[in-house]
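Data card: per-record layout.
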Amino acid sequence: MDDAFWLRYLQAHADPRTRRLHAAGTLLATSVAAVALLKRDPRLFGLALVCGYGPAWYAHARIEHNKPETFSAPLRSLAGDYRMCWGLLTGTLEPELERAQSARNASLTRSKNDFSSI
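The structure for this 118-residue chain is written out next.
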């Protein structure tokens, strides 16, 4: 996953509640998908999708008030979910969140400067 997408992905998940809901959904969906494979039950794959996307989309709609990256880049978004979840579980996400916030602030400053020159 390219760095620009990763930073944008993190910016779309700025609220810790969103990150926690994503992680819970990702872990639950992965567990249900594993059971679906073991039992060879395709209905459980549908349940896995609901378990993964349900909490994530709820968080984007009700907490972040933004559009999930899933709609524009589904595979990169899935990779982002797992990367973010791993960072949360291992305690390594904080520096990445700080980097994403810095990139957002720099972008806003550039936009403000571009607008003020008009």
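Known properties of this structure: The mean pLDDT is 92. Helices lie at 3-11, 16-39, 42-64, 74-90, 94-116.

See the next section for split statistics.
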